[in-house]
Specification:
35% of the residues lie in helices and 18% in strands. By secondary structure, the chain is of the alpha+beta class. Among the domains are: 7-66, no CATH class; 101-285, Gcn5-related N-acetyltransferase (GNAT) (Aminopeptidase), CATH 3.40.630.30; 500-505 and 514-554 and 572-626, Alpha-Beta Complex (Transposase Inhibitor Protein From Tn5, Chain A, domain 1), CATH 3.90.350. Helix 17 links the parallel strand 12 (493-498) and strand 13 (517-522). The longest helix is centred in the last third of the chain and has 27 residues, at 668-694. The radius of gyration is 31 Å and the shape is globular.
């Protein structure tokens, strides 16, 4: 990969400064350009086309003169503003532009190459772009958006920002690497859709068209291919929707400084930074370390026994760096014996035990809270998601019973058990990310809610209560979180997979507002529909069979009746043969939302027609916003839904492996902190188990420390 010449750094070397001084004193140098040409020849300052880098060398020479190293010949021409070439008359407005981009006739991008093309481009930008015509800097390409309806707008590409904190952190390069490879980033300096053009999806369509041709055109002109494209969106005036629709990635914000802000005045509006990777392996192309920056991760990357806690908890913003370091140590120690209390983990070490409880017992309003504890893990989870084409985001809740903690403050009222006894505790509601192959990627969001009983004087009907006040609103909150997260990974399809509790109209209506995240929900309600047979489930059962698939149904061990749970008979595992049907319906709104439009949705029906004797047949009704165009699409949705059990498995690891129901603290907030640590530990335990099954050849030292390996080896010898 071609590295950018470091012209100023090369000229700053003492021997090279002496060479420049020698030329100025002993050679006839008529003007600065001649000196720059001699320096380019001497030091081989050539670009990818083999041409001398005169402009870059002149700039470095001027800076060295300002530093007092030598005096250059006087400039021959006093710099002044240049007047761009323009047309003699204003450009006519486009005519007859249809309301949808797909109907625009003759839509194409035209590379600006001639003087006449440049005049058209200049005229557009001067008259209709808020930033005007420029000037653009560095290597440049310009395009006009042409059509049978007239000129619709234009693009301008030039040099990227020299420094950009959020971009540089996302890429993962250091200062030296940025200097060497910044030329591989191209900045979109101008993007104009003419204000008179009102055409839905036109902006995202032409953005995609520009990305399809830019790399080839750039390579043809400058003899190398760029790896990244960057652009900025003024968030005070624009939302950036067209960028996200064209698969750009929002990675942060500018600080309000421009290229000429030498005194850090930050006079400009902050802008959202968008990146488009031309090459998904751009970090490897730049020779960056793996994993560098904030790019995609493999599911098991960084989970080795020595470093995993640093990766998943490091940098947590807890208000005190000492707390962040303590969190890493606690998590690493607890993960070695997740089922034991921390005093047992450290084998009675009083100093370590005291440090743990001092951390957990921070003031209620401190920054040491569940969201901040999970923040580093969430970031790593998002990076693991970026490496997947599709990610299943499983939502579910689980009750955490702390009735035995009589003095614990802040607990809520759980549902009464079958004997009518009241229980106190927390409702854990989580979004758990899983790859299509079943490997868990991490915890995206978790809330430990203390449910409250509806006041006796609240006589409102359920339909009169705003959705924000209902318990079900938590499903919408987590869906909104996924919508925000999707902006970081536009090339990854996110599917929100939920069980029957999420089958309510408001959630589907929420998805309709931001369709970037799909829904896959098991139906609970046999709704009325407008067509015969007028019932949703009946219509699904009467649809023709489009496919048959075998689905593995896991076994259930027998469970005796206890005070807090019902008895359950044993169920052997089996392969169920399911008949698949699908229907396309308009989901009607409930009466109290009569003004809203019906929701366009598909239903996939799966039925086990011949179950084993004395066994309840499997029957699922799955509502989805995914377009089910074929039997293969229906089968895929069914496979995805079967992975919903992964979050149930994770709950089982939390309760049986990490024993979070046995935690004992004086307040609910302290319980949340301890639970937050265990959420990540349980994910790692589960992933390690599944990785061992998926990749049995995986070296053990990737996931286990030396101490863990010696323990396992001793245990294996004992079993022999």
């Amino acid at each position: 990969m071609h590295r950018q010449n470091q012209i100023k750094r090369t000229l700053c070397e003492p021997s090279n400064i002496e060479y420049i001084r020698h030329l100025l004193m002993n050679e006839e140098i008529p003007h600065r350009t001649d000196l720059a040409a001699r320096a380019c020849e001497q030091f081989e300052f050539l670009d990818t086309r083999g041409q001398a880098q005169i402009s870059g060398c002149l700039k470095a020479l001027r800076e060295l003169q300002c530093a007092g190293h030598f005096t250059l010949p006087a400039a021959r021409v006093k710099p002044g503003p240049k007047t761009p070439g323009r047309l003699s008359a204003p450009l006519p407005l486009p005519h007859g532009v249809p309301p949808k981009a797909g109907d625009v006739r003759g839509l194409k991008l035209m590379l600006v190459q001639t003087a006449d093309d440049m005049k058209v481009w200049n005229e557009l930008m001067i008259e209709e772009h808020p930033l005007g015509v420029g000037p653009l800097v560095g290597r440049q390409l310009r395009y006009l958006i042409d059509s049978h309806h007239g000129w619709l707008g234009g693009f301008g590409f030039a040099a990227p920002a020299l420094q950009l904190a959020d971009r540089d952190q996302w890429i993962g390069w250091d200062r030296e690497q940025r200097r060497a490879y910044l030329h591989l980033v191209v900045g979109m300096s101008r993007f104009l859709i003419r204000p008179s053009v009102q055409c839905h999806n036109l902006a995202s369509k032409v953005l995609g068209m520009s990305l399809a041709v830019l790399a080839d055109d750039f390579e043809q002109k400058y003899c190398y291919r760029p790896l990244l494209i960057e652009s900025f969106v003024d968030i005070a005036h624009y939302s950036g929707t067209c960028y996200r629709a064209a698969n750009w990635i929002e990675i942060g914000q500018t600080k309000g400084r421009g290229r000429q802000d030498r005194f850090s005045q930050k006079a400009l509006n902050p802008k959202a930074i968008y990146i488009y990777p031309v090459d998904p392996h751009f970090r490897q192309q730049m020779g960056l370390a793996t994993p560098a920056g904030l790019g995609a991760l493999e599911p098991g990357e960084g989970l080795d026994g020595a470093q995993w806690a640093e990766h998943e908890f490091g940098g947590a913003s807890l208000g005190d760096k000492r707390l962040s370091k303590r969190l890493i140590k606690v998590a690493a120690a607890k993960a070695e014996m997740p089922a034991r209390a921390f005093s047992g983990v450290v084998k009675g070490n009083w100093a370590a035990t005291k440090a743990y409880y001092r951390m957990i017992d921070q003031p209620e309003a401190s920054e040491f809270n569940l969201p901040n504890i999970l923040a580093p893990h969430r970031e790593r989870t998002a990076r693991r998601m970026m490496g997947q084409k599709t990610v299943l985001c499983l939502q579910d809740g689980s009750e955490l019973n702390y009735t035995n903690l009589d003095k614990c403050r802040g607990l809520g009222d759980l549902k009464a058990n079958q004997t009518g006894a009241k229980m106190r505790g927390l409702n854990l509601h989580s979004t758990f990310a899983v790859a299509p192959n079943g490997l868990p990627l991490g915890v995206l969001k978790a809330q430990c809610i203390a449910p409250q009983v509806k006041p006796a004087d609240d006589k409102r009907k359920p339909s009169a209560i705003p959705i924000e006040e209902k318990k079900t609103f938590v499903w919408i909150e987590h869906h909104r979180d996924l919508v925000e997260l999707s902006k970081q990974m536009p090339q990854t399809q996110l599917v929100n997979v939920c069980d029957r509790e999420a089958d309510f109209f408001e959630l589907f209506d929420e998805q309709r507002k931001s369709p970037c995240v799909e829904l896959l929900i098991r139906a609970q309600h046999n709704r009325n529909i407008d067509e015969e047979p007028f019932k949703l489930f009946v219509a699904a059962r009467e649809a023709p069979v489009i496919s048959r698939v075998g689905v593995s149904i896991p076994r259930h061990s027998a469970r005796s009746k206890k005070s807090k749970q019902k008895a359950r008979d044993a169920r052997p595992g089996r392969l169920a043969d399911l008949a698949i049907r699908k229907i396309h319906i308009q989901l009607p709104p409930p009466e109290y939302y009569a003004a809203k439009k019906p929701i366009d949705i598909f239903l996939v029906h799966a039925l086990e027609e011949n179950p084993p004797p004395n066994t309840k047949a499997i029957e699922w009704f799955i509502l989805t916003t995914i377009n089910i165009a074929s039997a293969e699409d229906a089968e895929q949705c069914l496979r995805w839904y079967t992975l919903r059990w992964r979050i149930e498995d994770w709950h089982r690891v939390l309760k049986s492996g990490c024993r979070i129901d046995d935690l004992a603290h004086e307040t609910a907030e302290r319980l949340r902190r301890a639970i937050g640590i265990n959420l990540v530990i349980a994910w790692r335990v589960m992933l390690m188990t599944l990785l061992g099954r998926e990749s049995p050849e995986l070296p053990a030292d990737i996931l286990f420390s030396d101490v863990e390996l010696r323990t396992l080896h001793a245990y294996a010898k004992k079993k022999d």
